[in-house]
Amino acid sequence: MKDEKSLFINIVALLILSFMAFYIYKVSIDTGSGIKITDSITPKMRVADKYLNKNVLNENSTYKFSQTAEDTSANIVTSVVVDYRLFDTTLEVIVLFVTILGFGFVIPKDKRRVKMPSVILYRWAPILMILMLMIGGYMFINGHLSPGGGFPAGAIISTAVLIGVLAGRKTVNHKTLKVVEAVAGISIFAIGIASFFIKGVFFQNFITGDRIGDLFSGGLIPVFYGLIAFKVAAELSNIYFEFYEEC
Amino acid sequence: MNSIVFLVVIPLIAAFLSLFLEKLNKLAMYIVTLFNLIFSITVLMSGNIPFNVAIGGWRAPFGINFVVTDITIYFLLLVNIAALISITVVNNIKEYQFYSFYFVLLAATNGMVLTGDMFNFYLFTELSTFAIAGLVAYKRDRLSTGAALKFLILSSTASLFSLASIGLIYKTLGTLNFADIALKLSKLNQASYNLILILFLSSMLVELKIFPFNLWVVKSYEGSITSVNMFTHGMLGTAGIYGAIRILLIVFPNMYSTNISKVLIILSVFTVLIGEVGALKEKNLVKILAFSSMAQMGVFMFGIALGSFESIKGALYIVVSNYLAKLVMFLVTKQYSNAVESKNYIDMKGLGRKYPILAISFTIAALSLMGMPFFAGFWGKFSIVVSALALGKLSTIGIAILLIASVVEGVYYLRISHTFFAEKDVNSVNISRVYSLIPFVLAAIILAIGIYPNFIEQILWNVIDEIKNAPDKYINIILSLK
Amino acid sequence: MTKVFILSSLSLVFVGLYGVLTRKNIVKILIALNIIETGINMLLVAFGYIEGGLTPILQSDLSIANLDKMVDPVPQALVLTSIVIGLGTTAFALALAMRYKNTHNSISIRATDEEGVNV
Amino acid sequence: MIELLLVPLITTLVLAFFIRYKRITWTLFLAANGFVLYKLYSIYGIWNLSYKVDTAYKILGAELTLGVSNNPIGWYFAFFSALITLLISLFSIGFNKNSRSNVSVIWMLIIFSNLGIFFAQDWVTFFMMWELMGWTSFFAITNGKDKALDGAKYYLALSLFGAALMLIAISVLAQYTGTFQIFASAYGLLQIINSSTKLGIGILLLFLTTFLIKSAIFPFYMWPQKVYSEGPEDYITFMSSVMIKYGIYPMAIFIVPVVGSADLPMILNTGNVLQYTIGYLGAISAILGTILAIFQTDMKKLFAYSSVANMGYILLGFSSMTIVGFEGSLFHVVNHMILKAAIFLTLAAVVFRTGESEMHKLGGLVYRMPLTFMTFLLGIIAAAGIPPLNGFGSKWMIIQALMSKRMVVFAIAMIFASTGAFMYLFRALASIFLGQLPDRYKDVKEVPPTMAIPMFIMMVIMLLTGVVPGVVMKPLTSALKAVGYNVEVASWTTLEGSLKNSVIDLKIVFYMFVAGVIISALMYFFGNKSEKVPQNDNYTAGEYPEEWGVDADRFNYSYAFYQPFKEMFEPLLESVSIDGFFASIGRNFEFLSSTIQGLFKRGEGAVLLFSIGVLLLILGGLII
Amino acid sequence: MINLAIFIAVVMFLGAIWTVLTEDVFKAIVIFGIVSLMSSVMFLLMQAPDVAITEAAIGSGITTALFIFTYKKMEERKDER
């Protein structure tokens, strides 16, 4: 790739970048009136304040640990992701769905040589897989209490599938993955629609009354996270299948 | 009207189901599209407009909300009608992925129009980008692969810019809701405002096909099949226009006090010039349409960037005219290019004599795009010209260049029409007369608007009224709901 | 601290942008895109950071008393989303790149898309 | 009023349905034209007729109203156009019997726009009709033939360009005067000129350019020869006689009153700057048209340039800004309509029978097509401005007006052009109809009656207007009076000049001419008869030029008819190469087009251009 | 703490530059993986453990794996020719 060393393009790029940097610098030192991008603004002045205080619906409500509140997830990031802004998260799942679909669609399907896996990997694979599944399961079940959640959980579960594929063990096949993917995806929306028929509002968390910090709290949050985890796992596993499975 | 969310949810569920439906996919496509169309018509007829839907029951600035106002509902109709018309040319497609992409695109474009939240809008945009990239790559040959890849790289760069801008908005204003942003935006420092606007605008302009953000356009159009072209034009394009109107005019109305609107004027003039001149020597009909759609977007953007209400009305006329005309043109192109198995318009010589309705529809569409009187495009051109001449030197020069560019457009379009009507024997070609129906109806609408603009004028003034009272009215609709 | 975070993320963004602008190898362009994305994600989270802030997770009544000191959870939620989108983009683009390699017989973005012409 | 416009429109739709049945379409076409003529006849004198359409379309803060109204000058143009159109459409029935394509639908649409232009009450209606006429004539000219495409494209580009300029002019004018009404805005424009001369003249020049383009005046004189040589002959007849006057009509109702009464710097105390500009443009077109016409070998191109020259005369008449000059110009409009229609009908007849339009390949057709010859003869006599026929009176009036205003240069130009006209007209006559008949045209017959009748009527009309100019002058002067000009209604046979004692009675002129004809006829019959030899022997001297690889026709006497003159004017013509200028614009656009396509063909710079775009936006944001 | 942050920031910056400038695609991928992992540490420092875990699993882990798979596949094709 000789073109990469083209001096002209490099100079142009550096000029553009330095100009942009200069502009950002200029904006950041701007002394005009009004809110500036360099001002330090605490969550108190943002919508996040309501999320932290869990008083979106009722402005004066306060809460204590191990008691009920409007959103009973202890991990506030989770409560934003899977409750306050749940719709974004479902769309994000769709984004992953679309891109992986596109991935499977455009990837060239030519014959691949299948290498024999090493014996060690073949023997140890089940143990590793179970370990991965356990970690993943823990993550999405505890998503509302501790860091983690559905996405990394899905990624870790998919790693289990990857190990299986690498070890040459038959775990799941394409068809199953497709079914898991679709069922998980549809379930997310089915719950949303169910809440429409129960509460009259889409994607409302209709299981309330839990206590913050309990394992079974947060209403639908663990359910959603579980579905998301399986969906992500199924989709990511699809990628490995595309690379390493014979078609 | 909480059920408005069905417009997004049903297509998404269909997208999952399409993995298994196999041959029923086509039927599902019609059912879902018709559902969306009928649902949006019902909403229009219900008389509840404007209303605001808080998803998940979280009130407006805290949760995600869907807003339905006059602008929304009309663009919703445009998107769904375009979808219905576009899928009539889908045939012989077996890959379930195509249908999935379509459903996702339908949901995403509907969502882009409906949403009232910045980040949600970003997500819908991404979704539509991926769906379009997948659809463009449908043929999976050299041309479409290159086009899809380059489109993907460009649009993901752009989306990162808009993500940065969303971050900045959240940092400074502490909110992601359109209405809330509009309410607080006046408190923002001018320089910071500019930075945010530039970052967001530059990603917006990619979708609006404004030069120099539009290098993907011609390739994508050339590399994809006709129905995908119609999706890109009718659904993604229309939703993008809606985004421009919503975000530039209602969320960022202060734009007109900065020089950025002047830069936009210059850029849109360049876009028009490049679009028209680029098409002049082209022989591939699809590429000509791509260049022309670029140019029309330039005219639209010019009208928006001028910022007076009359020019915005003109821009909306241009939108309507371009929307209808391009649909007609793509339909005609599809039939003719199928018949002669070539996209070169010279090979289509003489087809207009055998199938006059298609060729006449094409001509009407072309004349409307040229801004000829008695066709819908004229009213737009007229409004824009009149208001541009009142707004100072820059816009005067701009409109002069625009008009000269429209001369070039006239030359290449009428040359194509002439080729259709040229004398040549075409006996081996066979096109079913059924396919003439939709182009004919659309062309008749173009003509009707051109001759009698009253009914569309009424609608457009409703829209303009909404823009005029923005953002106060818009904010009231959304934030009053506790 | 905030300054360090912001500067480091901005530097990533600029380096990535430089890569996207100057590289011709599609895989490297995609890597550069990912670098930008990482940078932007860090930027967003840094926007929500406050000096000496706490993790926004409720562990006991003590953390509820210190809600003011917690960092902003919303940018973190946004970034969670954007990371997944980044993965999607990369996967799709890489698949396209593989096909690109097959059809164009090259991995340079300069390869022409016209049929039958080899670089 | 509205039925005048509705009937052509409805006829268009009906024609479109029956497009495959030639007989029906052309008969319907004739009937519709007959109706239009009748209707126009019936509304003469009722000047308060009008029809308005209120739209909800808001522009400049008010709702737009479109309207047509009967106005005297418009009626004058429309009536005579309709008369000529009727005759041409009669001719078309026979002419189109064997043609493959059918131009009648588009033609009817043009007639609709034609009437719309002449009766438009406001600029928007006028503009709409004007644009309609522009693109419809493109399709009428090409008419499905690829070889006509280049000329038609040229015409279309010019026409769209002109329309764009007019749109700008209308918008600016409306901005300052607040009205779209044509007559009201004329007064408004006068006030603009008084308060801010530059702006006013700018608007005026924009309008003027549009009209000049449509009437093929000097900088834009190239399109007639490109278009006329390729289009369908019957439609070209219409175009050269009627359509080319579209530019004259708005000049008469808008430009002339404004320029005449504007308070602008004067030159030599005879006229103001704009007056001289118009005059010079007219003079240049008259001279250039004449010179170029002299050197054409294609008869249609020859008469195309002749049209340019005639448009020049009309402009010269306008430039005098006297009432006689004005009358003369408007009179010449009709005269030119009639005589050009007559000439082009004969050319169409020749092409119909021989399929040839190169003059040096024709010859001697007088023996085979005597009626056509007679029409042509009268036509060129009229075009040359020889007294008993109709071209004389108007030219005489224009020259009178110019002399009375002491615009000597223009008068000289006019006389030069008239003299030159003899040269090219005689050339056409000699090459097409006189000389010897080539062997290949031995079997040529006279045209069928449907085509002969209109030609005969044309002859009668030419003679009539020549001898009794009152048939045109009476409606003209009453129309002018109705508009408010200080004129007296003309008498039947006399014409009034503007110099002292300059009234002529055309009756007397006619008697003198008849006497002359009788004498020359006697001389012909009693003189020596000529001897006949095979035609080629005349100019190949018994040799066979084909053996040298040269086309024998090139040695025909009419191939390089005016070689000495051509050599004389060659340097001048080379320096005045407007065509080259326009062609270079086209080439540059195409070059630019290839460049842009190259840019879009490669997608590699997309992100780079994207960042440059961001940079531009930043620059815009920084420079506050 | 701040020293750690500065150290990681510098390392990330240098790593990113190396990634962009290096000729070897495989090296670039690996170093990108490291940069990505570093960023997850940064997220931890920013009190965003959720993001850190996700970045480590998805941004650093799976994305890098994807790149490597792709790279290998492209190399394989090169071998076949």
Automatic annotation (TrEMBL), chain A:
Q: Which intervals hold domain Na+/H+ antiporter MnhB subunit-related protein?
A: 124-236
InterPro entries reported for this sequence: CPA3_antiporter_subunitB, MnhB
| Location in or out of the cell | Cell membrane
* The keyword Nuclease is assigned to this record: no
Judging by the UniProt lineage, the source's domain of life is Bacteria
Its placement in the membrane is given as: Multi-pass membrane protein
Name the predominant localization: membrane
**One Gene Ontology cellular component annotation held by this UniProt entry:** plasma membrane
Keywords attached to this entry = Cell membrane, Membrane, Transmembrane, Transmembrane helix
Indicate the transmembrane segments per the record: 7-25, 89-108, 120-141, 147-167, 179-203, 215-234
Instruction: Tell me which family the UniProt entry assigns to this protein.
Output: Belongs to the CPA3 antiporters (TC 2.A.63) subunit B family.
Q: What is this protein called?
A: Na+/H+ antiporter MnhB subunit-related protein
TrEMBL record, chain C:
Give the UniProt keywords, A-Z. Answer: Cell membrane, Membrane, Transmembrane, Transmembrane helix, Ubiquinone
Q: State the InterPro entries in the record.
A: CPA3_antiporter_subunitC, NUOK/Mnh_C1-like
Q: Indicate the secretion signal residues.
A: none
Cell compartments where the protein resides: Cell membrane
Q: Transmembrane residues, as ranges? A: 6-22, 29-50, 77-98
What membrane topology does this protein have?
Answer: Multi-pass membrane protein
Highest taxon of the source?
Bacteria
Where does it sit, as one GO cellular component term? plasma membrane
The chain's coiled-coil residues are none
Please give the chief subcellular localization of this protein: membrane
Quote the PANTHER family the UniProt record gives: ANTIPORTER SUBUNIT MNHC2-RELATED (PTHR34583:SF2)
Q: What family does the database annotate?
A: Belongs to the CPA3 antiporters (TC 2.A.63) subunit C family.
Q: What name does this protein carry?
A: NADH-ubiquinone oxidoreductase, chain 4L
* Originating organism: Thermobrachium celere DSM 8682
UniProtKB/TrEMBL annotation, chain D:
EC number of the protein: 1.6.99.5
Report the protein name in the record.
Answer: NADH dehydrogenase (Quinone)( EC: )
Give its localization.
Cell membrane; Membrane
Which parts of the chain span the membrane according to its record? 6-21, 28-47, 73-95, 102-120, 126-142, 154-179, 199-223, 235-256, 276-295, 302-324, 330-353, 365-387, 407-430, 451-472, 508-526, 606-623
The record ties this protein, via InterPro entries, to:
ComplexI-like_HydComp, ND/Mrp_TM
Record's Gene Ontology CC terms?
A: plasma membrane
Keywords for the protein's UniProt record, in alphabetical order: Cell membrane, Membrane, Oxidoreductase, Transmembrane, Transmembrane helix
From what superkingdom does this record's organism come?
Answer: Bacteria
Q: How does it sit in the membrane?
A: Multi-pass membrane protein
Q: Which GO terms describe its molecular function?
A: oxidoreductase activity
Organism (species):
Thermobrachium celere DSM 8682
Q: Which Pfam families match?
A: Proton_antipo_M (PF00361)
Which residues are in the NADH:quinone oxidoreductase/Mrp antiporter transmembrane domain? 120-418
Name the enzyme's class.
Answer: oxidoreductase
From TrEMBL, chain E:
Q: TM spans, by residue? A: 6-21, 28-46, 52-71
Q: Which InterPro entries match?
A: MrpA_C/MbhD, Nuo/plastoQ_OxRdtase_6_NuoJ
Gene3D superfamilies recorded: NADH-ubiquinone/plastoquinone oxidoreductase chain 6, subunit NuoJ
Q: Where's it found, cell-wise?
A: Cell membrane
Keyword tags: Cell membrane, Membrane, Transmembrane, Transmembrane helix
Gene Ontology CC terms = plasma membrane
Q: Which residues form a coiled coil?
A: none
Q: How does it sit in the membrane?
A: Multi-pass membrane protein
Residue span, MrpA C-terminal/MbhD domain: 10-75
Task: Please report a single Pfam family linked to this protein.
Answer: MbhD
Q: What is this protein called?
A: MrpA C-terminal/MbhD domain-containing protein
Source species: Thermobrachium celere DSM 8682
